[in-house]
Amino acid sequence: MALDEVKITQAIVERFTEKLKSALDLDVAIVGAGPAGLTAAYKLAREGFKVAIFERKLSIGGGMWGGGMMFNEVVIQEEGARILQEVGVTVTHWRENYYTADSVEAVCALGYAARKAGALIFNLISVEDVMVREDRVAGLVINWTAVEMGGLHVDPLAVRSKYVIESTGHELSVLHVLQRKMGVKLMTPSGKIEGERSLWAEVAETTTLENTREVYPGLFVAGMAANATFGSFRMGPIFGGMLLSGEKVAREIAARLRGN
Predict the structure, then answer these.
(1) Is 71 exposed, middle or buried (0-12, 13-18, 19+ CB in 10 A)?
(2) Domain holding 251: CATH number?
């Protein structure tokens, strides 16, 4: 059978439209497809919740792709290694409590696990605003990343969600918009974004989990975004805390969705 370029185009447009329509009313919307966001999506979708991730870049994986300074290996502790092993990643013990994994394998496995569990992943989509209803985040305002990069005046679309997870890492894009536009008081010591501090892996890995929590009604922070929100340190190319943060935020939101 001859290939028809228009039919190829029709297939892409129809299938993508179906996928996007199914993501307009969600249990959980995740902003940022780094390791924390992918882990949260995998865990929540596996529990049967309706989940979608919105990633502004072409590729998913956040900082995990590049390992440390483009040496594409990542380090995880034994606790985090459990999550990678759960999705089929080969994890190798180095010494003491240090384990390593191929960063490309890790990202691919997390993305595959999230997708196969039922989570939708949209790349090249930026979140330019949030929907707020009665002092609670109720969804996202999305647009193409190309529109953002081009500085074009094109009106966005809206996604309703019961909960939102900010896992955008260092940039903390959702909270910056919420704070700038609404002037809200966050659940931080100052009521504002505290800001990221410099590298201290030991402390940062612990505080990543401690800071993974709700920061404004309906809005949770996870991964490096949690430390940037609550004023803790960055951790560099060790990713156990990121994975465990995604697991924790999924567990806490799932409990709320079930009414526990």
Answers:
(1) exposed
(2) 3.50.50.60
